[in-house]
């Protein structure tokens, strides 16, 4: 597979080897992922981009321990077999409990942690400050905008200080202005918390802006088509010509994956002026 890591190489902080996933729908066998091999180094920010249906969210759920597949997934030296406090997860929808306040929703991230009450309060307070929501600690989800709710979800995902943060298209439902603002905030949070991050998206600009490695997936079944390193310093400016260069590389790769577009309609004679 072009772009896939050498399966014999030294495993990374997150190591995925020969991962396959098959679903059965109406007695039909549907291969969602085919022979995925990937290493994610500690402290890196890896983004996974691909068209809808390429299996990127399925891959993230397997890494989170919410799904199983054939193959091996090793995180921090341990096989991934179930969800873990060492892996934070943020979905496209904030999924906040409407009857709980902002601070109570964030505190849910510490539900199974061993921290005492005072430490929990401090961690919640620090992470609300990190996502600029201190003034909304006592607010309820109905009183928040979509972007604010998603910041609560991010705070909940990192309040336990997980080693690995998994993000499943976290800004996909937001307007362009709010999405750009939260992308910038996520860069800051990743650096501040010294996280390892794995984000899936269908937005090429987002993948290039945030990732120091971009994994391009091809669909049906999902395979790694190419891994592109983005050796640019953070924080990044989305208007940078260097980012546009890498964006175009990924778009070219996606065009190759998609193949030639079918010609539709009848050809028309075009008169060229003499």
Automatic annotation (TrEMBL):
Gene3D superfamilies: P-loop containing nucleotide triphosphate hydrolases. GO terms for molecular function: ATP binding; hydrolase activity. InterPro entries: AAA+_ATPase, ABC_transporter-like_ATP-bd, ABC_transporter-like_CS, ABC_transporter_ATP-bind, P-loop_NTPase. The keyword Nucleotide-binding applies. CDD domains: ABC_NrtD_SsuB_transporters. It comes from the Bacteria. It is an enzyme of class 3 (hydrolase). Keywords: ATP-binding, Hydrolase, Nucleotide-binding, Transport. Residues 17-244 form the ABC transporter domain. Its EC number is 3.6.3.-. Belongs to the ABC transporter superfamily. This is Sulfonate transport system ATP-binding protein.
